[in-house]
Predict the 3D structure of the following.
Amino acid sequence: MAADPKPDWLCCLPSSWSYGVTRDGRIFFINEEAKSTTWLHPVTGEAVITGHRKTPDLPTGWEEGYTFEGARCFINRTRDRTE
């Protein structure tokens, strides 16, 4: 069974809200009406955890991450791509 392409936190965003992702993988929320941003989800009041992390055993510029479906991946920040 395929994973839902829209995670729960995305499905319940109010209509005037959108989201962005920082260069290091953190998700933030944008209130289009108030022209403001926050790390906290506008409905749940909690930050979204992406699972990206830097570890000392990875080469410089690489991070370990997990997709929304739970698959492990590696992020090459020197080339801005996931492998």
Remarks:
- The CA atoms of residues 25 and 52 lie 6 Å apart.
- The longest strand covers residues 17-21.
- The longest helix spans residues 8-11.
- Strands lie at 17-21, 27-31, 36-38, 62-66, 72-76, 81-82.
